[in-house]
Amino acid sequence: MSLKNNLMCALLVGVTLVGCKDENVNSQQNLLSAGVEIMNPQDVPLIFEFAARAQGSKETEVRARVGGILLKRNYVEGSEVQEGQVLFEIDPEPYQVALNQAKANLEQTQAELKNAKIQLDRTEKLYKQKYASEKSYDDAVANYDSLKAGLSSAQAAVDAAQLNLDYTKVKAPISGLTSMEAQSEGSLISTAGESGLLTHITQIDPIYVMFSLSENEMLTLSRMVSSGQLKNPQNAGEVKAILHLGNGDVYQYPGEINFVNPSIDTSTGTIKLRAVFPNPNNRLRPGQFMRLTVEGLERSQALIVPQTAVMQSSKGSYVYRLNSKNEVEIANIKTGPAVNKEYWIVNEGLEKGDRVVVDNLLKIRPQMTINPTPVAVLVKEEQ
């Protein structure tokens, strides 16, 4: 072969190779690009949200313990009162008279007892000298013992009369906010039925917030604990309750869960829990509805996917996953709790190292080959 022919062959081969290379580049450039996240287990914070309602930490009825005419109310309705503060005054005169009479009876009994003691000592002396009979001595002893017992009874009557007189001043059993009065001044009060109810007092600092956990949520948490998926906090103080008020504000003081009902409410299928919050400014009021989140728990070594990457079909939730050839395939998954309102925890359907498509989902179809762009998974704690 001549030199000219050799040069022509070499030129043709070079043109062919360049053409193949350009075709591969063009093919790669024509592939749809999409972001993918590589599944990598990590500890993620869990936040559980519930509907909640506030109630007083102490709620009590203020009732009259003696009857009579209600003379005076010493507080402003709806105001805060302190434990031991006199709220109402009932006419004390009948009870003062009863106390005076009881004291007079006590003094009379004391005098009689003193005389009986003198008579007993005299009779005992004569009895020892054989000048008094045994019956006389026994009668003196019996009279003294009877009056001694009568003295205790008279003292008890004085104490009871004093107690009734003290009850004419109706005091606050606890500190808190008062309700409207149930009986107006001048009313005849008795201790029976609703006539004895004067007002209510509700203690709101601290204040309780009640919320409920469904049976399914409880079982899910129990399963996570038993399987070791739920990371135990270092101390109980790390688990906090946060309140989100109706206007969107976050209540400034965190609370703590201090009670879990041991039984499930059969009518609702829920278990009741209680959190306690400081309420120094009385910002929270009983009956107020709000959202409560429980924070401080962590799911150990969880796989998470963006909520926007999860789609629904008749078979349930699924995501697009890439195989080793960058081909799209459907992966049916089962999701767990939400993470920071952006991610779902994946309980089933994905494994460590899987690549999940997270954007351009409307343009992607199964078995399509795409150009993957790695996207890092980063879970940030909510502020």
Structural features:
383 residues; alpha+beta; Elongation Factor Tu (Ef-tu), domain 3; Helix Hairpins; 21 strands; 29% helix
Give me the number of helical elements. 4
Largest sheet: 11 strands, antiparallel
Distance between the termini: 80 Å
CATH class group of the domain at 47-56 and 205-297: Mainly Beta
User: CATH-wise, what's the superfamily of the domain at 47-56 and 205-297?
Assistant: Efflux pump adaptor protein, beta barrel domain
Strand content: 35-45%
- Provide the structure class: alpha+beta
| Corresponding CATH architecture of the domain at 47-56 and 205-297 | Beta Barrel
**What sort of overall outline do the alpha carbons produce when their principal axes are compared?**
elongated
Order of helices and strands: HEEEEEHHEEEEHEEEEEEEEEEEE
Number of DSSP strands?
21
Oligomer: single chain
CATH-defined fold name of the domain at 47-56 and 205-297: Elongation Factor Tu (Ef-tu), domain 3
Low-confidence stretches at least 5 residues in length (pLDDT < 50)? 6-27
Helix content: 25-40%
Q: How would you state the average pLDDT, rounded?
A: 85
**Radius of gyration, taken over Cα atoms and rounded to an integer in Å:** 43 Å
